[in-house]
Amino acid sequence: MIRSLLLVIILFTTFNVVSQIPEGYYENAEGKTGYELKTALYNIIKDHTDIGYDALYDAYVKTDIKPDNTVWDMYSDVPGGTPSYVYYYNEEETCGEYSGEGDCFNREHSFPQSWFEEASPMKADLFHVYPTDGYVNNRRSSYPYGETTSPSWTSTNGSKVGTCTYPGYSETIFEPIDEYKGDLARSYFYMATRYENLIASWESNSETADDVLDGTSDHVFEDWQLNLLLKWNNDDPVSSKEIARNDSVYYLFQHNRNPFIDHPEYAELIWGEGAVYPEDTILFFEDFETTTEEEDISLTGWTNMAEQGTVTWYSETYNGNLYAQCSAYNTSEDSVVAWLVTPAIDLSDVSNQMFSFSIKGGYDNGATIEAFVLTNYTTGSAPWDAEKTKINFNVPDDASSGWGDWANSGEINLSTWADQKIYVAFKYTGSDGDDPKTTTWQIDSVKVYAEKVTTSIRKNRRLMLNIYPNPAKSEVYIIGDDIISGTIQIYNSLGTLLMSKKVESQQTKIDIGNFPKGLYIVKVTGQNNTSAIGKLIKE
Predict the structure, then answer these.
(1) For residue 360, how many other CB atoms are within 10 A of its CB?
(2) Which of 71, 252, 292, 438 is most buried, by the most CB atoms less than 10 A from its CB?
(3) Which domain holds residue 521?
(4) Which of 235, 77, 96 is nearest to 155 (CA)?
């Protein structure tokens, strides 16, 4: 929310609630970052209690009720002001039919049901299903959340429908008021984490799902949406409303928590600037497209050598696709053993090292193809004399009487040889003598890949802010990726500035030992006009 710092403070302090996180709840997430942190959180919050769709109204009486006993509707509420209408928890006020705002309230899936095909437990997950005015809910439809400067419709509390003017998207969106943007962003981060095992398949469920989701289980969101959610998470810090709701959902109903309410910094640690996470990187790839048909394979660094007979591997083409092939057909040799060995492949400084290739066979008369990992090998020397380990892969079984189809070898784990230099060797064995074994074997798209630790670089977003430990007793660290030459300011619950400190590093230690127990607001400004606001609890 960024309309004023005082408004932030009011939202934080109105109900004087401090989150009751169970001791050790996030222990398995400590010290992690990037997608590793996200998966650790998934394992903490998965398998929650599904209360069922029909039970939501009863739950709302505990999770979404204002101090004046009215429904806490983020689509009609006016923080610090008087809304045009309010609802009470009774059957007469739930929808039903409606023709305009103020007629009734119902259950709003902030993460639209069509995106996950109305399946359970998502359909009744309290961390994204809120009570809202039925008419505004209908106007929101299944539009993504976004920002617009040219709304086609505006609700009584200022929520908008219109063409998105946030960079990266130009279709119709729904924009909630500033005071609840962070709430909804943290709901989306929860959904991306709680349903890490499912969400990659939701992208194609609807057009708007495709606009928001990128079809992965780690990054999850299209860049425009992720940047917007991170901005909202920073601009609108966690409020007392969210803290109380998080505790109610955990203790009374689902028995899991929204980690991004307890630790809003997790969003930046997973997806933000400076977040460290593994990315797939190709260590070796060869598709033989630089070879010429019917020539022996003689690529740079490769070894192509006959152990028995004179046959070696050669290039072949079909429908314009080049690949490596070996066959004893028409050789009249009693024994053919031919090796094809890759150049050296360095498996150091990466993890989860994997190997795969495409394979095809024809006219199966008993010839075999095998694969090995070679170590202590020198390019050009005899591969059969090297230290080697046979590796298993999927062999097509459709080449018995003609040409089979291209198949994938499957993913072959090479982590046994982590931090080593290896070679991958293919061995063909066949004959065309008195006991003909003239199967032809073909390979293509030889690939070795792994996960390499990299740093996310996302431009044009808000400053990352992490306050640790939080709650704190005496010393606290203010951590930000862009605070060099910046300023840290701390305000009390009345909006009084207590401390202003210039900093010259990304991590600054501040002594709060003399501060009374309570809630404080930390505001950080950094380079390039970046800023962030966060909460600090003094124990």
Answers:
(1) 20
(2) 71
(3) 463-539
(4) 77
